[in-house]
Each structure stands twice: as structure tokens, then as C-alpha cells.
Known about the structure:
Blueprint: E1 3-4, H1 15-29, H2 48-53, E2 60-64, E3 67-72, H3 79-98, E4 105-111, H4 113-117, H5 132-156, E5 162-168, H6 172-177, H7 194-210, E6 214-218, H8 226-231, E7 236-240, H9 246-257, E8 261-267, H10 278-292, E9 303-307, H11 318-332
Parallel strand pairs: 1-9, 4-5, 5-6, 6-7, 7-8, 8-9
Antiparallel strand pairs: 2-3
Helix pairs in contact: 1-3, 1-11, 5-7, 10-11
Amino acid sequence: MALATAVGSFPGTDQAAHDEALRIVLDELGEDLPCLPEVPGRGHLAGMVGRTVGLLGDLDADLQPAGWRLTGTSGAPALDQRRARSLLGQDLDALEERAEGFTGAFKVQLTGPWTLAATVERPRGDKVLADHGARRDLAQALAAATADHVADVRRRLPGASRLVVQLDEPSLPAVLAGRISTASGFGKHRTVHPPAASEALEWVTEAVTGAGAEAWVHCCAADAPVGLLRGAGATGVLVDLDTVTAEAMDSLAEALEAGTTVVLGVVPTHRPDAVPSDTDLIRRVHRWLEMVGLDPAELGDRLAVAPACGLAGADRSWPPRALRLARSVAANLAS
């Protein structure tokens, strides 16, 4: 049977909002694939990049007006980095308390190496992406931090039957196409060629699998490089079905046939004027499967369903309904 999951982010601006999101995730997705919620409305420390930077033990970083910036390798993280790490620790403490005795599958999310490189600045300015050595160091530090994070989550959820690490890579297609702007805004960073992009991503996926978890990659851009992700060791790919190109559709079908998990984002991330029924969404997934010649009854849990992207921008009443929709769609795809 297909699974249901969430991409990761939820609305709110404080710790209470995170704890409520965690309750919703465990209640609505408990038998499928719940995840550790992100509540980026709490500020930069709790955002996708901040949570990941906070885990980097081999690189120091601080928060500047323009965003996160590396400061060196002193082994003494700056205040903002320590605060980001502490905030994630609070989230994990809440998970450990609420999910005591949990025995199912569970997912956590981190920012992937290329989105980090396209976002975080070097000590002397401009993005890490501009410096081959800096982006290598960042990817390798992320690999080490990811392995430590998996071990921490495993300690807190000792009975979990399956752990998944989702690497968020919304910027990867732009990195590959040379579309990331320089600090001045007047130029673009050089294109990163696929072999180099695959190598850095593979360092992180190997760290995930070496720690006993599964490495999935989420890319909601229209030109998600599905083949590259699989070649770099991703055993799962998450996409927004609305943005998938014809070429990517074929790549996703090939991935499913080869045993890769494909998570289709089909549930709206904001409450639409006309809320679709589970039947509407099931028909949509069936149309796509018919187009690529696949039978949902033969895919099992290699096919999963989720909201199209994060739910951080939704009103507080929408996430539980969105996850219920995803779960109903997943449960009835093969019927």
C-alpha cells in the first residue's frame, strides 16, 4: 500500500506551534511516515538552512543581515549557531517525549549540500558556491553532521523500524543551470557540472546509509534532476506533481520501476477555495500512472503521497486536513 507523509514545514511562530505540529503529524501519519516538523516562522534559527547549519560541528557560522555566513573551523560555534542547535534539540526532546514507544517509520529533514552552498556565505563574502574548496568542505561537514544527527534520532526513537533522512534541494536545478545570482546581483555563479554535483550529494547520502537510514531528496523545482539524484545514492525522491516536466515524469517512472521510492506532492499546500476530495486526487495520480504505464497495485510503498511542498504558509487549520487527505489518497490508490 502507498504511504502518506509530509514535506516538513508547518505554520506557527513559537515552540507551542511546533509541539502542536508534532502532535498533528503523529496523530495523522502515525502508521505511514510521520516526520519531525519544521516551524520556520520562529525565525532564521528554525528555518531549513538554520536547522542544518546548527548541526555543523566541523564548521562555524553566524547569522548576518544577509543570512548565514561561515566564520571558520575553530570548533567554537558562534552564538547563533549554538542557538539554532539548541532549538533543534528542543524539538527532538519534544519528539522523544511524545513518541515514547514509537515503532514505526520516521523521517527527518535537512538542507542538502547544494542548496546550502547556494545560500550560505563564505567568510569573505559571496556564496560558498563560488569556491570549489569551500563547497567541498561544506558538503563533507554536512555528511559528518548528518551521520551524527541520525545517531541522535535513533537514540531518541530506539524502536523505530525505519529512519529516512530527507535532503531538501530546491536550489539544485538552479545550481546546475548557472542561475544562482552573485552577491552583487549583477552576475551569476558558474554552472556546476553534474559529476561534481553528484559527488558532493553522494558524500551525504553515503553518510545517511552508513548510519543506517535511507537517503531521500526533495526537489520541488520543475526541472528536478531525478536521474542525478538516484545516481548520487538517493533511494527516494519527493516532487511537486504540478511542476514536473514531461522529461522528469519519465525519469520518475523509471525510478519507480527500478525500486526507488517516489513521493508525489498532490495535496494543496494552502487551503484552496474548492478543497479537492480524496477521489479527485486519486484520479489525478491514476492519470499520471496511466500516462507512464504503471499499475498502482504493483507499486506498494514505493509510491507515496504528500502535500505539494511545505505547509508553513498555510492557516493553522489546514495541515491536519491536508495530511488526512494525503493519507486517504495513499490508502485508496490501489483500490
